[in-house]
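Subject: sequence -> C-alpha cells, single chain

Hey, anyone have a minute? Need the predicted structure for the following. Not urgent.
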Amino acid sequence: MLLLFGRLGDLLGGGASFSSGWACSPWPRRRAASPAIPSTLIVARFVQGVGAAAASSVVLAIVAIEFPEPAERAKAMSGYMS
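Reply:
Had a minute. Here:
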C-alpha cells in the first residue's frame, strides 16, 4: 500500500495523496469505536489502514519540500520522527 500511494503521490502531488488519506479518517474511527457486528470493525480497520498508508507515504516528501534549508529540514524531520 505504501508503495502504491507513494507512486500516486509522485504522479498526483503529495498534497492530494496526504489529503485523501486524512479524508478517509472520520468514518472508520466512528465505526471502529462502536461496531455493531465484527465485520464492521474489520472493514473500518481496513479503511483506516488505507488512509494511513495514503497519508504517511508522502509526509517526508512534503517536509523536504516545505523546508528547503538543511537545518530547518533536520529540525522538522526530527520533530516528525519523535
